[in-house]
From TrEMBL:
The gene is nadA. It comes from Novosphingobium nitrogenifigens DSM 19370. Its EC number is 2.5.1.72. Iminosuccinate binds at H31, S48, Y119, I120, N121, S136, H205, P206, E207, T222. This is Quinolinate synthase. It is an enzyme of class 2 (transferase).
Amino acid sequence: MTVQAANLAGLDLRAEIDRLRKERNAVILAHYYQRPEIQDLADYIGDSLELSRKAAATDAEVIAFCGVRFMAETAKILAPEKTVILPDMDAGCSLEDSCPPDRFKAFREAHPDHIALTYINCSTEVKALSDVIVTSSSAETILSKIPPEQKIIFGPDRHLGGYLNRKFGRDMLLWPGVCIVHEAFSETELLKLKAQHPDAPIAAHPECPPHIVDHADYVGSTSGILAYAKETPAQTLIVATEPHIIHQMQLAMPNKTFIGAPGADGNCNCNICPYMALNTLEKLYLALRDLTPRVEIEENLRLAAKKSLDAMLDLASGTVGMGDLGARS
Ligand code: 13P
Ligand code: SF4
């Protein structure tokens, strides 16, 4: 047992987190991929876009972000006056790691006639080098507002970018990043599972590779998949995204059956995001108690990154077009 774990032995962590949340005037935001025990005590659970909006709008003084680092950084970019804490600062993302800012800058410079449409799963530095950020739930709305003749580079997720290219008949230049979690689903095992449950539709996140997405009845963000699970009359659903989202599905629809899409070993546990899993109740308690690890961003960098995030929030809201953004800057 670690010294820290020994010191926490006997504490009622849920009660302590509740006490600290009130004392600190904190809001706990959690992504759907968080451990069930964290989802259960969060004030809000959502996809990347919803959590960004919550962070921008909250009255709380402290945002305890239970997700990965790029999400907590997004919260700080949008709400700089808040104290933003992340239970484990090592909670990164393979997509962010695939896209170092210096290489992304060189890619941009090699294509001066392209705009950079960038997935939110990237560093603050890459956001600062981008024109418009997208999430999986806002990408289609935003791309449909960009004139077809406009050349675009899209990073870091080549699977989301490829899915958008196919769906919209675009030829965006794709950065070669992948999500290690969605990359791990096995087409062979998925088809075996489907043969056992022929009436169960497949819902997939667009971070999945094409050999998985091509079998899906529904493709969308985490919140989109959750909404689809509620709408479909099917009683059994195969879920091709990080399996912790199934916790919310089971809570909302206790009479339906949700099966996580398998990896090569035939089960869905290899698809747990190792970065998301770093956050635990113990670390959340310590973060609220000590107000650390804390996200800090240098102000000029924050302002540069905020431009592309604001463009996303404006374009995703449905009332603003690309022309309005041009006029604004
Ligand atoms: P969404 O929740 O926005 O669908 O994104 C999923 C994701 O990549 C989290 O890492
Ligand atoms: Fe990154 Fe994939 Fe984990 Fe999401 S699920 S945080 S994209 S590694």
